[in-house]
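Customer escalation, tier 2.

The customer says the design service returned an amino acid string that "doesn't look like it belongs to this structure." They asked us to rerun it and document both sides in this ticket. The original structure tokens are below, unchanged.
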């Protein structure tokens, strides 16, 4: 018999009906668990009246707000699949995704009306439903007229899909990773313990909710436990620090990829804020420079590192707080119910401290990609998901993410991992952002190019950078080209778009 999906919004509405579940920092709106459940029921009733049911897709185009969670729980009640859309994409890019997932309904916030009108009829059967996050005077307000007791909920299993999340498409068109209830449940199990998430947790959500880092690290686990999430419409470093410092929010938890944590660290107020209530800062998504980790640790908060990807729901590994100083730079050990191995090009396990590709298996892994059998088959090897990340594992079993396989370059026959070089150059205090990419070289095949953004009103010469590299890096790792830039191209979560940097070569 299939294990059944557990509706934790409904559960918390019974256990903690008057407890605040969601606060919107921008609008000041807040929802209790009972109000969240009632809204989800009304939306589910709307789906029922519009004959949107099991395995149908509903897309959402909006910046961060509580509707992501209202829709998520509404979809679960009817077996509908939610497709959160990256609002930074152009109309042609969105059109591709909508054609691929073929939703019956596109729900969008009013500021994106122009984008929606530019879509090239991507889905023949798609209806439109507009809402306005600034006020209730819009088409979506009619949804709230439905009675919340009219809905007929389906009996969903853990195998049923709840979301399709489209990856960034770094090597081509984006792929829709299928996310089921089981993945969400095991992610919650794997996160709550190490991150110490309870009903008293108050988490600041700074990552975009269309991304697994925003939705599932730690927002869904917090709601599972009956805690509170505070949503920022869009990440602004200074405002995020203000929220953390504001006693009315009493923020205990924060999760980010390295970039936003770095930008907050570089804010002029970072050193003077005491962070009296902040207990845990989680970081993952990319190798994190040690200087970022150390700067947050000195604020007397526990920095919990980990590794994962959209396809792993996303928690794959976790570094417990008690090991964060002793094993700084490590992504930790495999999460509960999760197996990991590191293999060479022949898919044979490597020796401790040798570098290979990280493979992962467990109930937290995607069943595949939406309507893309080739991508699914190429991503799995005997039930193991090929991550595309290069890693090593020490004698104690701790995993270190070295770099993305596609970002590594070979210079004079030697493998160079840009993240290692970046970690060294970040030691220079004048640097705000940087990235290392491989570029063609007549003699060595490839060599490193260093793309540097300086802090405001700071000066740093190429000569000083090279002197630092010569002192701290093997000769073949030293970049041969330095380019000073105003900013680095980044995606919605803050990851550097190295493919964009390489296009300029």
């Amino acid at each position: 018999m299939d294990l059944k999906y557990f509706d934790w919004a409904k559960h918390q509405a019974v256990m903690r009906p008057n407890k605040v579940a969601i606060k919107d920092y921008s609008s000041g709106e807040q929802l209790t668990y009972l109000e969240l459940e009632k809204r989800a029921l009304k939306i589910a009733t709307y789906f029922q009246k519009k004959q949107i049911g099991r395995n149908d897709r509903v897309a959402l185009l909006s910046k961060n707000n509580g509707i992501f969670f209202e829709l998520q729980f509404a979809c679960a009640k009817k077996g509908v699949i939610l497709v959160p859309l990256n609002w930074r994409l152009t109309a042609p890019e969105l059109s591709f995704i909508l054609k691929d997932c073929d939703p019956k309904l596109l729900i969008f916030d009013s500021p994106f009306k122009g984008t929606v009108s530019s879509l090239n009829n991507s889905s023949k059967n798609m209806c439109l439903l507009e809402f306005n996050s600034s006020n209730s005077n819009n088409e979506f307000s009619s949804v709230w007229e439905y009675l919340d007791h009219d809905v007929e909920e389906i009996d969903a299993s853990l195998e049923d899909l709840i979301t399709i999340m489209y990856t960034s498409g770094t090597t081509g068109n984006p792929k829709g990773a299928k996310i089921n209830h089981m993945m969400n449940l095991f992610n919650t199990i794997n996160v709550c313990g190490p991150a110490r998430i309870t009903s008293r947790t108050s988490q600041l959500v700074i990552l975009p909710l269309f991304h697994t880092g925003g939705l599932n690290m730690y927002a869904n686990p917090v709601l599972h436990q009956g805690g509170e999430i505070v949503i920022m419409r869009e990440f602004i470093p200074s405002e995020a620090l203000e929220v953390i410092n504001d006693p009315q929010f009493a923020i205990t938890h924060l999760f980010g990829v390295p970039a936003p944590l770095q930008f907050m660290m570089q804010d002029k107020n970072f050193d003077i804020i005491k962070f009296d209530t902040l207990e845990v800062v989680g970081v993952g998504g990319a190798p994190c420079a040690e200087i970022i980790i150390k700067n947050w640790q000195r604020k007397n908060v526990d920095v919990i590192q980990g590794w994962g990807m959209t396809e792993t729901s996303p928690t794959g590994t976790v570094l417990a707080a008690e090991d964060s100083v002793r094993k700084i730079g490590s992504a930790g050990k495999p999460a509960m119910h999760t197996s990991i191995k590191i293999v060479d090009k022949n898919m044979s396990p490597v020796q401790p401290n040798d570098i290979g590709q990280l493979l992962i298996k467990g109930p937290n892994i995607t069943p595949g990609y939406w309507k893309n059998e080739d991508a699914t088959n190429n991503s799995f090897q005997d039930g193991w998901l090929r991550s595309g990340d290069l890693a090593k594992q020490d004698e104690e079993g701790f995993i270190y993410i070295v770099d993305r396989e596609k970002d590594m370059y070979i210079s004079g026959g030697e493998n160079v991992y840009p993240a290692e070089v970046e970690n060294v150059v970040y030691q220079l205090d004048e640097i705000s952002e940087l990235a290392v990419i491989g570029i063609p070289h007549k003699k060595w095949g490839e060599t490193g190019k260093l793309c540097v953004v300086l802090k405001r009103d700071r000066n740093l010469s190429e000569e000083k950078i090279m002197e630092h590299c010569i002192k701290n890096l093997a000769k073949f790792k030293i970049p041969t080209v330095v380019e000073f830039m105003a900013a680095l191209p980044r995606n919605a979560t803050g990851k550097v778009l190295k493919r964009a940097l390489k296009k300029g070569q």
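Tier 2 assessment: The sequence is consistent with the input. The mean pLDDT is 91. The chain has two domains: 8-393, 407-503. Sent an explanation to the customer and offered a walkthrough call.
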